[in-house]
Structure formats: C-alpha cells, structure tokens
Amino acid sequence: MTETQPEASKVGQRSPYSSHTEQVRRSRVLGQLVGLEARTVCLSAPGGYGKTILLGQWSDEDPRRFVHLRGHSQLSDVYLVIAQFFDSLRSIGIAASIRDPRPPGDLLTWHLSVLPAVVEACREVGEPVVVAIDDATAMSDPTWDSFLDCLADNLPPRSTVCVATRATAPGSFRRRRSQPSSLELRADVLALDAMECAELIERLGVRLTDDEFHVFMERTEGWPALVYLAGRAVRDGHVPSALPAASDGAIDDFIRDSILDPLDDEMLDFLLTVSVLDELTGPLCRAVSGFDDSLRRLRELARSNSLIVPVDHTGRRFRMHGLLGDFLSEELQARSQTLWRAAHTAASTAQEAAGDLDSAIHHASASGDDDLLSGHVWTHAPRLIGSGRASILRRWLDDLSSDRIEHNCRLSVVAAWTAQHHGDPSLMDHYRLAAEQASETPGQEEMRPYIDFLSVSLGADGVEASAELAAGCLEQMSNSDPWRAGVCFHRGAALFLLGRAQEALEEMERGRALAHAFEYPLVEALTLATMFLAQHRREDRLHAHSTFGELCALADHIDAGDDAAPVAAPIFTALAFGHQLVGASSDARHAANTALRLTSRLGRIAPWHAVSGRLLLAKVFLAFGEASRATALLAEADDLTGPQSACPLNDELRTEVRRALAVADDPATQAGELTMAEIRVLQYLPTHLTFPDIADELYVSRYTVKTQALAVYRKLGVHSRSDAVERARLLGLLPAK
Description:
Elements: E1 7-9, H1 27-33, E2 40-44, H2 51-61, E3 65-70, H3 78-91, H4 107-124, E4 129-134, H5 142-154, E5 160-165, H6 171-174, E6 182-186, H7 187-190, H8 194-203, H9 210-220, H10 224-235, H11 249-260, H12 265-274, E7 280-281, H13 282-289, H14 294-304, E8 308-310, E9 317-320, H15 322-335, H16 337-354, H17 357-367, H18 370-386, H19 390-398, H20 402-406, H21 409-421, H22 425-438, H23 448-458, H24 463-476, H25 484-497, H26 501-518, H27 521-537, H28 541-555, H29 569-581, H30 585-602, H31 607-623, H32 627-640, H33 648-664, H34 676-682, H35 691-698, H36 702-716, H37 721-730
Parallel strand pairs: 2-5, 2-6, 3-4, 4-5
Antiparallel strand pairs: 1-3, 7-9, 8-9
C-alpha cells in the first residue's frame, strides 16, 4: 500500500486541506454541515469553489472524526480508494484488525470478496465518522456506486459519507436525493456570500467603494478562486478596481487549466461559439453554433457543473458565468475575428426573430455589420417612434459612435427622429444633414423621402413648403410604408394651418387609419387632436364631439409625466381646449399645464405649434378668467412668429386672442364662472334651435334651459342671445366664424 497516503484528522488538529483562504470561515455553509446526520452529502461545483478547504474547516469543527480519502480527476480504479479507506481506519485506531481484501480480478471477485470486506470494515467502526472523498470527479463506474452504497448503508448511525466532485453527484447519491438523509450543495451554495467575499479581498489588502464592490461581486459571482485571483489582480494593479477581467494572466490560466482543458475539442468549439450569448437556449445556440444537439450539450454541461447554470426550472434556459463568458468570447475573437463576427451576426438574426430586440441590436453592433444593424433599427423605428417609445431607440444609438451613425443614412434618420422626440432641434438638424450626406452614397437614393420627412417635421422652410414637401414624400412612399402615417399627419396639420380645413381632414383621416392599423398611439393621438381642432373651427359640432371623445380615450395611454416626449404637446393643447369647452375646468387646467411644459421644450421643432399652441392655450386661460397669463402667452407667440410659422390660422388665432383680451378687460364679464351645464347650453346658442328644442336635445326641461341661458348672459355681460354668441366667440368659448 505504499502508493497511498493515509489521511485523517481529529478535533483540534490542523486539516490537511488548509490553505491561504482558510482564514475566511465558511460560516453559512458550515452551519449546514457541522453535526449533520445526513447519510450522504455531495459537494458538487467546478474547480475553484473551495470544496477542499471547506472539507478541512468542517473536519476541524465537527465532533466526529474524519476519514479523508482522495480520488483524482484521472483516478478510475475504485480499489485504490478502498485501500485508502482501510489504511485510514487503521491509522486512527478504528477497526485496527481489518485486513485488506484481495484486489478484484473480475466482477465476481468484486462482489464476493471486496464488497463484503468493506461491509465488515464499516461494521468494525465503533463510532460515528465522516468519510470524505475529495476530488471524486471520475466516479462514474457502477463499482463506485456499490462502494458508496456500502459505506452509506453500513457505517454506524450518525455517520456521513461525503463526496466532493466537479461533476454531477454519483449515481448512488442521485438515487437518494428524495430522502431526507441526503444533502447536495452545488455551486450556488458554495459560492462566497458578500460578507465572505468582503473579508477575503480585505485580507488581500484591497479597498473598494460600495459601488465597486457591487460590481466586483456581480463579475465574480462569489466563485472563490476567481474572487481571490481577481482581488489579487486589482491589488497588483493589473485590472481596474472592481472590474476584474478574464484577460488577467492568473484568471486566464485558472480558466484554461481548471475548466477548458478537460473538455473535448468539439465541446470547446461549441462553447467558444455560444459564448457571445447572454442567455443560452437550444434553438439560439443551434442558430449560432450550428450544433443540432445544442440543448443536449447545454444540459450535459449543466449536469457536469463545467460552465453553465440553469436560469429556470424548465431545463431549457441557461447562462454562462460572466467572467467565463468574457474569456471564451475573447478567446474566440483571438482565434478568428471572422468566426467571432459570424457568431454575433447569427445571434443578432436569431434574437431579432425571437423578439429580443435589445440583444439583436447588441449583437448586430458587435458584428460590425452596419447593414444588419441599421436594418434592425430601421424596421422597428416607426413603431417605437409612433408609440412614443423613442427612448428605446436612444438607448440603442447611445452605444454607437457618432461617426458610425453619421456614415449610415438609415441610422442618421432614426437618430434625427430620436432627437426630435427628446426636444433637441440642433441634434435633429445635425443628423438630418448627416443623412443628406450619407444619402449621396450609391444605392441610398430610396432614402430621399425619409430625409424630406425630417425637413417637413422641422418646418424650416415654412408651412406651405412643408405641405408640398409632405405631398412629395407620400408620392414616393408605398401605401404600406409604416412611415406614411406620420407624413399624413404632418401634411394634414400643415393644410389646417393654411386654412384648408376640408383637405386637412381628409388627409388626417387617412393618416389616422394608418396609425390605428400600425398601432402607433402617439401618431394617432396627434392626428385626432388636430382633427378635433379643425372640426371645431368648422363648427362641425357632432364630429368634433366624437373626435374629442376618441382623443380622450387614447390620451390615457400617452405619457404625460416628466419623461413625456415634447412632440406630444399638441395632444395636450387640444385636450385643454376641449375640456375647457365642455366646462371640465380641472381636466382642462391639468392638460394646459402639461401642454405648456411640453411646448416650452419643443424649441425650434414644429415652429408652427410654438405659435398656434400658445395662442390656443391663451384662449383656454382667458376662459379661466386668467387674462394676465393669456397676455404672456400672446407675447411669447408674437416673439416666436416668423416665416417658419406664418400661416392664416395663426393670424386668425392671434386676432381672436387680442379681441378676447379686450373683452376680458370688461368688468362685467365673468366667463370663468360658467358651469359645465351652462357651457353645454352655450354650445347650442349659435344654432336655430329654440329653448324647447335645446331642452329636448339635452333631455332637460325648457325652464332649466332658460335659467341656464340667462345665467350665461349675465356671466358674459350681455343681454341677448346674439350678443352672448358674439362674446363667446371672442373669448374662445365658441368657434370663430
């Protein structure tokens, strides 16, 4: 037995597994092990998880004596471990009289001679013990299972058999998992917790801030060997604080020696290719690696604790340790830049098809294929812009350099729209000009209408030019083009500003139908808001009422908070105006305040609204009886008036506000005190309906209508129906003629 080394420890003796990291006591895990009476314990984790150190700490603190046996990753002869078992028992004075069994020559000898000898030795042990077999990775032969069963079934009560392995638990232990006397601790339990990690790196002389420590823990995931090596690398200045990288020499060597070397070439190729993925699934790995049996490989790796862990209980989703994934990705890139880019390209295509757009964009960016990247962004940009989620586009683009965006026409156009939604006209114009230049590249001619659409939105050449340019865009776009809904809205708005209300309504109706079909709630709400204002000015009371109801319902889904897109300002302006018309003062005031906040952020974007929006809000505040605020809004509108915003509608609105301000100076006017019921009656006064007819329309008595009409006269400071209508028009309570 000269080739074996008996190993045993008693209470108070120093463990043969002591090392520099033993000073970090594994209190949390030891609490589950010391004094444990489970018959079987399996410590199952990759190399570097401190299994050997943990066995030493356990043996130092457990009142039972330990019988230490060592397997080996290359040791497949169970008889050599049995020989260690017998020598260890004799060395600590237990079962001193036992004799080694004859080495088995065949399976019959194993069962008739070796196993009975093991059973006899176990029965000779007169006290509870812990038999710990370290480095038991090669325990895959059925003879190992029968040996472990002999130990678990025949050692004295309160004894425990423990194996520490880099692979999954031995078959004998797996069959006992459902029994309360069985315990398996895997990598998630054996990892260092935050306190243990902090103690270890502090002993290394490393000082980290709270934020740095959080990142350090996130990167190492408590893998003890990586915590130690990464902490040492930070201490020695090899890597930035709290950002250990797999490219550090010591970490690199550990991963190669402990993790990769045991893998066969095919499995290593598989892992190198899929290392670019954050989440691993069978279909995704198959798309990236080309291995049809990807799910089987993932499950095999998960069972062997080599590199990946499940992220749910379905056995279909896995992830790779962050540092390991980084190392493998860097290794793939070092071996072949072409293969590394191809893996990212395949991952991008697969993730886009699966609906994981963030991952698709990330991989497309990493692949260096700007056609693929811009294709993904361009495909989803209209939906994200049209639904008010341009912040997602901004997040995608923030990861790209300005040069990369500017040299791609589609990316430049999307960047310009993103800048518009965040109220940055200078940046919007910058990317519009970049798109103009990029469009001169051969093959980019089809981008012309989309660049022109940006000019329409900016309105730099005036309202009439915007209407004509929008018409040209529509001629060049197909009927199914997802950008068409926005162009229809802008052209309709321009026609409305030019006083061509009927044409505007027809164009916006087309745009509204497209926006609804494409599910662009922001564009649909903008269109409905402008349609409502156009119908109101045409005194199309029935359609205006219906459109306003649709707008209110849709506006509930439009962000009105601090992060709301400034381009939503016309929506809330129309809401404020409409709520004020029906006497919903609280809703009108809330919408008006939101509209003012967003309008102030629009700047030079939509210069027509900078004027018309303020004038409409001035009419709203006049109806509230706040002439001073209306005066300030009129002054702002006058300051912002120029060639870009000049149009008949703004001229009409300005005249109406000035006349209304003159009327508001009359102390007899108390328009701000009109009730909702009185405002409803006021809407019928311009018609030819008599009071009884109005009563029938409102389902109230004729006496109620007469009382409310007289109250309207009194609060408007007039004495007749015609004078009430005229003053209400001046104050913006009724459409102008």
